[in-house]
Amino acid sequence: MVRLDLYNHGDFCGAQAIRWELERLSVHPLPSLATINRILRRHELTHRRTGRYEPKGKKYPRLEGTSVNRVHQADFLGPCYLSGPIRFYSLNTVDLATGRCGIEPLVARESQHTIDAFWAIWQRLGLPEHLQVDNDMVFYGSPAYPRGMGSLIRLCLHYGIELWFIPPGEPWRNGVVEKFNDHYRQKFLRRVDMADAKALHQQSQFFEQQHNRRYRYTKLSGRTPLEALAMSHKPLRFPTAEQAPRYPLKKPEHGKYHLVRFIRSDGVLDVFGEKFRVPLKTIYEYVTATIDVKEQKLKLFLDKIQIDEMDYKLF
């Protein structure tokens, strides 16, 4: 039934999309991807969508990577496994303007590990103006404390980075890094033999360097990411400290972070599990919910025009 609902709304309806929707509906226990695929095959529901994909035609508040480090997209890949077996995750980041990638393997996705991974990537790529991620709990904190500002939110606010959360169940909004993840799987995970964590880190750094030096993009007129960076002549901003900040981070006093959400027929905005009623004109539209830390306000934008504002006390 979830697959049928996704299909009828013109959304992706594969196993991963179904699992995200079940998670959004608070289904417990949550079935694995293998279980969902097995059920789909049993009911002969693995065929592709018939006919051409028809976009919804809704205006989406897309971030444009118009200059170096204006927008980074980041995503966790994993768990992945080395021989042994050793389980790990890979935090992959891509600068939209140049295609430069940052890869940082880590053994766990806890707060300090995530802070350390982003810090290491920013030391190589530079700090972005905007960082776009999905709604993985490690990125926003805890649904039990939706206003608590998780570790990544706090890290970005402290260093002048505006964090953006794409709509739940729409991974294609982070399409650049999702495509890079496929490249990473095919060219790295399936081809490089690694027996331990040290080899994993060394080979990840080598793959990152090779990609940035040698991979040529059509969108860059055949240039490599580092050639595109050199042609931009834009100075980069790097973290000033060698070591990443320690968790827990101090509560920020200024800055903004954003959530892009599609408002359905119930007219409800979901902010990490907390529900807000929004104006009727937003139904079946994409809105941007901007949380202003200094003003302690939640501001609602439709097509870049502010249409609502409410008090939003952060903890």
Element layout with pairings:
Elements (H helix, E strand, L loop, with lengths): L1 H7 L6 H10 L8 H10 L28 E12 L3 E10 L5 E6 L4 H15 L4 E4 L3 H4 L10 H8 L3 E4 L9 H15 L7 H18 L10 H8 L23 E7 L5 E4 L2 E4 L8 E7 L4 E6 L2 E7 L4
Parallel strand pairs: 1-4, 4-5, 5-6
Antiparallel strand pairs: 1-2, 2-3, 6-9, 7-8, 9-10, 10-11
Describe the structure.
The protein has 315 residues and is an alpha/beta fold. It has a domain at 2-42. It is 30% helix and 23% strand. A hairpin with a 5-residue loop joins strand 2 (86-95) and strand 3 (101-106). The chain is globular, with a radius of gyration of 20 Å. It starts with a helix and ends with a strand. The mean pLDDT is 91.
Radius of gyration: 20 Å
- Terminal CA distance reads 38 Å
Helix/strand order: HHHEEEHEHHEHHHEEEEEE
Number of helices: 9
Q: Which spans of ≥5 residues are poorly predicted at pLDDT below 50? A: none
Structural class based on helices, strands and sheet pairing: alpha/beta
Per DSSP E runs of 2 or more residues, the count of β-strands stands at 11
Strand line-up of the largest beta sheet: 3-2-1-4-5-6-9-10-11
Average pLDDT for all residues: 91
Shape by Cα distribution: globular
State the helicity in percent bands: 25-40%
Strand content: 15-25%
Let me know the largest β-sheet: 9 strands, mixed
